[in-house]
């Protein structure tokens, strides 16, 4: 996906007053983290979000590029120090301490870094109260020869619909990249990797 299309997706959702956007992936956890960093870059440098308060909620601080940004993870704390200008918040802490939904009212934007559907399914009772906060969803997917990403996207949509959470314009909000190589070079160029 081209940089301008990613920026346009986020601009459109922000113009619609979306404050809580979930991001999930189709079998590419590492790309999902890099995509989130690209989105943070776009928000801060292109969409006039420099002085806005942004939270990124994730489980994956021990792996991928987040591991390089986060110097120390203390499970007893919700907020994790990092270098992005956004507040990184620990999903596990949210679930274990039953943080109320209104905790996020102080943020201009909350980006929910969703784990895979298997993890969600095993923890759905604890996670579901947060799902109702989502205003939109973005899916990071790479094209494949067999169309597996389409089936996975349908499973994601079915899961949330089955649990009573209608994802606004899910079919229209799918971020596809042309190829892994193009996406990786875009990440390196824009996010400085």
What does this structure look like?
- The chain is of the alpha/beta class and 193 residues long.
- It has a single domain (3-191), classed as P-loop containing nucleotide triphosphate hydrolases (Rossmann fold), CATH 3.40.50.
- It is built from 8 helices and 7 strands; from the N terminus they run αβαβαββαβααβαβα.
- The protein has helices at 3-15, 29-45, 64-69, 91-97, 117-122, 124-131, 148-162, 180-191; strands at residues 20-25, 54-58, 79-80, 87-90, 109-113, 136-141, 174-176.
- A 7-stranded mixed sheet has the order 3-4-2-5-1-6-7.
- Helix 7 links the parallel strand 6 and strand 7 (174-176).
- The longest helix is centred in the first third of the chain and has 17 residues, at 29-45.
- The two termini are 18 Å apart.
Task: Produce the secondary structure layout.
Layout: H1 3-15, E1 20-25, H2 29-45, E2 54-58, H3 64-69, E3 79-80, E4 87-90, H4 91-97, E5 109-113, H5 117-122, H6 124-131, E6 136-141, H7 148-162, E7 174-176, H8 180-191
Parallel strand pairs: 1-5, 1-6, 2-4, 2-5, 6-7
Antiparallel strand pairs: 3-4
């Amino acid at each position: 996906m081209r940089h301008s299309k990613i920026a346009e997706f986020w601009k459109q959702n922000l113009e619609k007053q979306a404050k809580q956007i979930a991001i999930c992936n189709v079998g590419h956890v590492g790309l999902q983290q890099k995509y989130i960093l690209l989105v943070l870059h776009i928000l801060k440098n292109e969409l006039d979000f420099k002085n806005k308060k942004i939270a990124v909620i994730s489980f994956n601080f021990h792996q991928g590029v987040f591991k390089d940004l986060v110097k120390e993870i203390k499970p007893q704390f919700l907020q994790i120090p990092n270098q992005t200008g956004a507040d990184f918040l620990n999903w596990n802490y949210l679930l274990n301490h039953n943080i109320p939904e209104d905790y996020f009212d102080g943020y201009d934007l909350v980006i929910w870094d969703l784990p895979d559907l298997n993890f969600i399914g095993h923890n759905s009772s604890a996670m579901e109260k947060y799902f109702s906060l989502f205003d939109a969803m973005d899916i990071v997917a790479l094209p494949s020869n067999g169309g597996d990403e389409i089936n996975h996207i349908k499973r994601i949509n079915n899961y949330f619909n089955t649990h009573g959470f209608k994802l606004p314009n899910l079919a229209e909000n799918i971020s596809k990249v042309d190829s892994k190589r193009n996406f990786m070079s875009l990440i390196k160029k824009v996010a400085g990797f």
